[in-house]
Design brief:
6 helices; 35 strands; globular; about 675 residues; mainly beta
């Protein structure tokens, strides 16, 4: 039994391969890792979601999809936004990528901005926990989430046409999702087509939308305001999105070359703050162009040469009461070249170069002074990662140097030179035991909004104030890991400690900006006309925590197979001078029971306990503990002429807990989804 269920320890169901995918290897290869290592060989903790496990966990946002993974939570801003939080790090410290290149969106700039990736179209999601700056730049100081699909095919098609159609319905927001994928080709030619449509109403919850006492405590602008609250539903949280991709490749024995074009449109609402102002919605549009190629053994000393390039044309308009309030534009070009050299004795490795160029602006329609000035953002980086084996251990060393600049219109340039280095090792003591360590020095350059934001941001209901004098953020990180595998149990434990000099964070000051008077005040003298002030700041900080899981095969007989998984994770963030880093996840622990019968039925029951977060940070509020109970079941049949039909159902938050997320800026205004049922059908051939 352990052989059948082990690949899906945290949310396991028996492996039922997609009809459109080739047979999966016995062990996943992490393509986001420096040397594309097997999952068990990666010294830093990593998670891979693919196949049925990904299908059952997929949500309407990347954060929602990954929120049950070890060390990962979601920073929600209502149901339309869910960005991943890795070990307490989010926004600009977690690089969310599409096929190993940046999204080109502005999700990292503000918590109300959604990622421009639709999870239902992903074939695979990889998560690297901890610094991944060596390969992916200073924006990956907290970790990497790499969403992989086959929009540019890398292999020859196994049949002229294969396809997948899926339809989902979620009762908690009356949301329906339809998606279609077609792939195929002949001889050297391979193609990919996909598309989706998602439409949902207001989100239903297990109690009041606004925690009024906590909201007044954390938001000085609500003092003296008669809060307009709702029960059981969050108003203005409907969403509608659509998108599609066309891609093709020429694939030969020596490699491939191909291109794709993708479009995404997303319109979603921002939960109201109860002050009675006009509703805020965000209307996002993005067009992305990708080129990707790889040559195998182009030279005697080169095993592979890989090139990736993307151009992203991104825009979104923040609508206040149906009228345009703020316009965000981001034109991004990103290129990446990797050379995997032939082994030099015991040493193998990768050399690479990465360049990113962006033209960014955030224009207020009501104020002649932009929220963020038009800025030219440039980043160039060169890196090298080398690995070698010695005795029972495998060791890895890496170095990356960057040149980063932000050039605002009408202001002085800001130039930085981040340097990152790492060393790691893994020892396989025997077939049952393995230990690993990783030491990293990572640097992050401040982002444009952290430097130059200055004004009212309607979607966040705040006055944002940057600091143009911010310095490089430098992090020293230690990871220790242990893995155990036997017939009666498999287990994994990861410990981490991060020491961060000049940690950049956004903190409410406790004061307000009075829009009627145009002045800053300690308390609002004009109720309904004030915005809380959010200030960029720097201070030394430390982070520590762990992730742990253990899986026990309990039964394997003619009645089926049962596994029990125990899991827990924890992150604690503190400022060296005293006080708590804001928006940290709470201690979580729980269990999951997985049951499978023959090759058709499978199910799981998962219970998660989140403890009270009583270290919320200055001018923020605590969140209560919660119990989250989820149930999933699926049935798959072999239909006619090789097609497969799978029906699945999930019950989420069955206890209807009115859960408030400690990593969310809107914890007091928008709880997580209440009790809901999700039904779906998937046909593949």
């Amino acid at each position: 039994m352990h052989r059948a269920l082990a690949p899906f320890t945290l949310s396991a169901l028996i492996p039922l391969a997609h009809a459109e995918e080739a047979a999966q290897p016995l062990e996943e290869v992490v393509v986001s890792a420096p040397l594309e290592q097997k999952l068990s060989e990666v010294a830093r903790p990593a998670t891979v979601l693919t196949g049925d496990e990904l299908d059952l966990k997929v949500g309407s946002t990347i954060g929602e999809t990954l929120k049950s993974e070890a060390g990962v939570t979601s920073q929600s801003f209502g149901p339309g936004v869910g960005t991943p939080v890795i070990r307490g790090q989010s926004g600009p410290r977690v690089r969310v990528m599409s096929n190993s290149l940046g999204n080109g969106d502005v999700a990292q700039l503000s918590p109300d901005h959604a990622n421009s990736i639709e999870p239902v179209l992903a074939d695979r999601i990889e998560v690297l926990r901890g610094p991944a700056t060596l390969l992916y730049g200073s924006g990956a100081i907290g970790g990497v989430v790499n969403i992989l699909d086959n929009r540019v095919p890398e292999r020859r098609a196994e049949q002229p046409v294969s396809g997948v159609f899926e339809q989902r319905y979620n009762s908690v927001s009356d949301q329906s999702i339809s998606n279609l994928k077609l792939e195929g080709g002949q001889d050297l030619f391979a193609f990919h087509l996909d598309g989706f449509y998602r439409d949902g109403g207001n989100l239903h919850i297990g109690g009041p939308a606004i925690a009024e006492n906590a909201a007044r405590q954390s938001d000085a602008a609500l003092q003296g305001v008669d809060i307009q609250n709702s029960e059981g539903v969050i108003p203005n949280t409907s969403a509608r999105a659509k998108g599609g991709t066309v891609g093709f490749s020429l694939v030969g024995e020596q490699g491939f070359a191909g291109a794709s074009i993708n479009y995404l449109g997303n319109n979603y609402g921002i939960p109201p703050d109860g002050a009675g102002g006009p509703d805020t919605r965000i209307n996002m549009k993005q067009t992305r162009y990708d080129f990707k190629s790889e040559l195998k053994n182009p030279l005697a000393a080169v095993e592979a040469l890989r090139l990736r390039f993307a151009h992203v044309d991104y825009t979104h308009t923040e609508l206040s009461g149906g009228e345009a309030a703020t316009l965000f534009n981001n034109q991004t070009y990103e290129g990446r070249l990797e050379l995997a050299h032939a082994p030099i004795g015991p040493v193998k490795g990768v050399l690479g170069f990465q360049a990113v160029s962006s033209d960014f602006s955030a224009i207020s329609m009501e104020d002649p002074v932009p929220l963020v000035p038009n800025s030219q953002i440039q980043n160039y980086g060169a890196f090298a990662v080398e690995s070698f084996a010695y005795g029972p251990g495998t060791y890895e060393l890496g170095l990356r140097g960057e040149s980063a600049s932000v050039s605002p219109q009408g202001g002085p340039n800001r130039d930085y030179a981040p340097i990152s280095a790492s060393g790691s090792g893994q020892w396989k003591i025997n077939e049952a035991h393995a230990v690993s360590f990783a030491v990293t020095r990572s640097q992050r350059a401040p982002q444009v909004q952290e430097l130059f934001s200055h004004g009212i941001h309607d979607a966040t209901h705040s006055y944002e104030s940057g600091d143009p004098n911010l310095k490089l953020e430098t992090s020293y990180n230690l990871d220790l890991g242990y893995r155990f595998k036997a017939s009666w149990m498999s287990a994994e434990l990861n410990l981490f400690q991060n020491w961060v000099n000049d940690y950049i964070y956004q903190q409410q000051t406790g004061g307000v900006f009075n829009d009627d008077l145009g002045v800053f005040q300690a308390s609002c003298s004009s109720p309904g006309a004030c915005f809380p002030v959010v200030q960029s700041a720097q201070a030394d900080a430390t982070f520590k925590g762990y992730e742990a899981k253990a899986t026990f095969p309990l039964m394997e007989n003619r009645y089926g197979m049962v596994d029990l998984t125990l899991f827990s994770d924890f992150t604690r963030g503190e400022f060296v001078a005293g006080g708590d880093v804001p928006r940290m996840p709470p201690l979580r622990y729980g269990f999951q029971v997985d049951y499978a019968y023959d090759d058709h039925w499978s199910s799981n029951l998962r219970l998660t306990r989140g403890e009270k977060q009583d270290h919320p940070g200055a001018n923020d509020t605590e969140t209560n503990g919660y119990v989250l109970l989820n149930l999933a079941v699926q049935y798959e049949v072999q239909a006619f002429e090789g097609a497969k039909l799978r029906v699945f159902a999930q019950g989420n938050n069955l206890l209807d807990d009115n859960l408030r997320n400690s990593t969310s800026y809107l914890r007091n205004f928008a709880p997580e989804p209440g009790r809901g049922a999700e039904l779906g059908v998937r046909v593949s051939y």
